[in-house]
Fold this protein.
Amino acid sequence: MDIDVRGPRFGAAVTTVVLAVVLITGSAWLLAWQTLAFAMGAAGGVGRSPYGWFFRRAVRPRLGPPTEFEAPEPPRFAQAVGLTFAAVGLVGYAAGVQGLGLAATGAALAAAFLNAAFGYCLGCEMYLLVRRVTVRAE
């Protein structure tokens, strides 16, 4: 079942704010929260993440009906990519390797910002590229 494209963009906007605060404060706890949010989105789809749940319950009812939909697989893959970067960042912060934490968190922030501001989902594009390559290889 296709999903409302506004949901993942809303989640990306919240993620952008959360990751920006992580970079400003260096909070490993806040990055742990974002890592969990990514994990929930990767495991169950963006609708199962905390931001997807909030969008569905509080934001979407205040908007008009959706006019654009997308397949759930690319955003779910993007959540897994975000999970990877957030986990690496969390390891960096927890191990005291500040540069690793900053770099991985900054990369996740850049991708989230692109989606939130411009509707360009890097993880979704990676998913499509992987699909093209694996289909040709079969």
